[in-house]
Amino acid sequence: MEVVFSGDTTRLSYWLTWDFLLCLSSVFTSTITASILIWKYEGSDNTERASSLYDGESWMPCLKGLSPFWLMGFRMIAFCLILAASIADVATHGTNLFYYYTQWTLILTTIYFLFGSVLSASGCFRKDKNNMYNGHRKDIIDTEQGIGIYMPLNHEVNLQEECYFSQTAAIWGYIFQIVFQITAGAVMLTDGVYWLVIFPFISISDYEMSFLTVVVHSLNLVLVLGDTAMNSLHLPWFRISYFILFTVLYVIFEWIVHAFVETWWPYPFLDVSAPYAPMWYWMVAVLHLPCYALFALFVKTKYTVLSRWFPESYQCLR
Q1: Of residues 291, 225, 180, 264, the one with CA closest to residue 2
Q2: Which of 41, 77, 99, 163 measures 20 to 30 Å from 93, CA to CA?
């Protein structure tokens, strides 16, 4: 696969072609399909959305014997590793890397682990606070020896505050689930396309296959799979819509940049003037299905195995 300049992409004649219209149709169809799925399953009157608001799913491990502090520690370490790899990659190859879908995925993965670390820390803090309160309540009950009024006067206020923070945490946990589901599909698409489509056909004479190149096209998937093995998050099918919209956003970004700046395409198959460009666009659109399906299969297999091998320790909030 060779990097080539397609000429002046800022010319109107470059975009007013049947090839671009066919490429546009693939992006438009994907956007409409994703929007319909979101409208159908994420509407305010839909029970699917309400059933997704589980605070504990964002920070509790899928096994009772596994402390949430382990998941928090893993996410913090993963965040540091991904951030270090991203910084090293940009420092080595320059800011032009932000034209690549790989860098977008790295940024998304970094946000996921940072978000997850914050929610895990918050969840562990609230869990310890509840444990301390339950222990204090037990001491009061033992001291009063059966007297009916044993709770402090501000207990109702504490309950209201706890309820408020639980609802707020559930909303952030709901957003975190969406970030997870976008990240899951994006890392599969990024690493899969690179190793199975791009890498075997690389013919760039000055292409550098370094350790850092391998890391940025592998580490994200390894860390996300490691987090998935421990967390309690799910991967419903309709959430592929957010993954699709993430890719659509990237494609539109590339089109806007090339409409105003005459520059090279980060991926030759994005060049709408290239031979068979519409076919490549439709092929990438279809690739979202197996990428998301493979990750969903991993999640489904994990829950099936854990429920059979660790029936006493396995916990599922749904």
Answers
A1: 264
A2: 77
pLDDT band at 241 (very low <50, low <70, confident <90, very high): very high
Q: Which DSSP string corresponds to 82-108?
A: HHHHHHHHHHHH-GGGGGSHHHHHHHH
Contact 188, 294 (CB under 8 A): yes
pTM, whole model, 2 decimals? 0.85
Longest CA–CA separation in the chain, Å: 87
Tally of CB atoms within 10 A around 254? 21
Q: Which pair of tokens denotes residue 183? A: 């990240």
Highest mean pLDDT pick, 50-59, 86-95, 206-215: 86-95
Tokens 């929007």 found at? 35
The C-alpha atoms of residue 153 and residue 130 are separated, in whole angstroms, by: 17
* CB-based contacts of 25, cutoff 8 Å, min separation 6: 278
Q: Which residues contact 178 (CB under 8 A, 6 or more apart)?
A: 239, 242
CA–CA distance from 73 to each of 34, 128, 299, 306 (Å)? 34, 16, 21, 22
Token couple for 231: 């967390």
Of 63, 59, 109, residue with least CA distance to 83:
109
